[in-house]
Amino acid sequence: MSAGESAPGNRASSKVMNRADLCKRLVARLKSDEAVIGGIGNTNFDLWAAGQRPQNFYMLGSMGLACPIALGVAMAQQHRRVIGIEGDGSILMQLGSLGTIAAQAQKNLIIVILDNGTYQITGGQPTLTSRGADIVAIARGAGLAQSAWACDEKDFEARIDIALTADGPWLIAVRTDDKPPTGQTERNPSRIRDRFMQGLGVIH
Amino acid sequence: MWHDILLKVLKANQIRLVAYVPDRVLTPLISALAADDFFTVVSPSREEEAVGIVAGAWMGGTRGVVLMQTSGFATLPNVLASLAVPYQIPVLMVVSERGTLGEFNIGQAMVCRTMRPVLECLGIENHTIARDDELQFIADKTIQQAFLTLAPACLILSPLLTSPRPKGETR
Questions:
Q1: Is the Cβ pair B53, A76 closer than 8 Å?
Q2: Inter-chain touch B53–A192, beta carbons under 8 Å
Q3: C-alpha gyration radius of chain B
């Protein structure tokens, strides 16, 4: 029984962790040039602050599309692990993408959801997850059986380690606090894209 | 038939990933693509999602195309303006045109009028194809240009091209 299939865990009993700290913990575990797609907003900012790897792609708009972009990269590069990191507000905009990923059964794809229950960057309005919507339950309902809440930092790291080796698709959700981001991405889209493609070894 | 020609052009240009949102007119093309091992065909829930998948795949080294109908295109300005255009990602789009030449649904007719102005204001190369004998050239050259110039492009399939006609007759 894999960690993902064991139990979905529980949002309410999961520890509220720090987004920047989790991004650092994630990046520290990436040893094989894994691709990471950072969702728009603070997700991106803390991913950037955790170290500017050439295999990171930073979005400047198109809210909700980190998971579809990650799926596309994963389909094109089956040998590489691909991670899509998305906030709760963002994934709520594109819930159908969870079903697409499940239907595609993309083995090398990992989705990480950072759920702070608010649209933090636009003024802290509550998202649906603070009113009962459970992203892990939604993901499982969409067909992503290997979806679970990480209950603390150690559990997050253990789940990432499994997802980096065992067949996916995986979805790991974490609760995060509303501390401000620890950095900001650059804002030059063609340079971001070009560096990312070089990081993936793609020549166009 | 138009869909045979288009499939061959996609193949000749190494476009291996197809992300579509259903459309009745596109059905023979979608079926032929799905039946051909050269292509990987995915069916996302929204056109936006399809653009994200095709954009990601291209950055990973695989060329793709998004198939949709007119009303689906109308959901795309945000992703085109914030992803495909500024990041210089050649997302190829094929739109089956509804809303004109005999449309019965006023909603479709009005949505159709938004398509070309959106493409124009974003500076996206677009061509409307109405004739079998121009399809190969327009599609092939538009696709080549998109990938050479790192720019999204849109092929609009007019009902003049795709509507059923008597056997043997071409337009």
A1: no
A2: no
A3: 15
| pLDDT class of B139 with cuts at 50, 70, 90 | very high
Q: How far apart are CA A152 and CA B110, in angstroms?
A: 51
CA distances from B83 to A91, B77, B93, B97, B111 (A): 17, 10, 14, 24, 22
The ipTM (two decimal places) reads: 0.97
> How distant is the Cα of A137 from the closest Cα of chain B, in angstroms?
19
Instruction: Inform me whether the pLDDT recorded for B95 exceeds 80.
Output: yes
Residues A117 and A140: their CA atoms lie apart, in Å, by 19
Given a cut of 90, is residue A182 above it in pLDDT?
Answer: yes
CATH superfamily of B2-102+115-140+152-162: Thiamin diphosphate (ThDP)-binding fold, Pyr/PP domains (3.40.50.970)
Q: Tell me the CATH number for domain A3-199.
A: 3.40.50.970
Instruction: Please report, rounded to a whole number, the percentage of residues in chain A having pLDDT higher than 70.
Output: 97
Detail the DSSP E strand segments found in chain B: 15-20, 40-42, 63-69, 92-96, 125-129, 153-157
Encode B107-126: b = buried (16+ Cβ within 10 Å), e = exposed: ebeebbeebeebbeebebeb
Segment B159-170 mean pLDDT: 81
- Widest CA span of chain B, in angstroms? 45
Query: Which residues of chain B does A201 touch, with a Cβ-Cβ cutoff of 8 Å?
Result: 61
Q: Is the pLDDT of residue B28 over 60?
A: yes
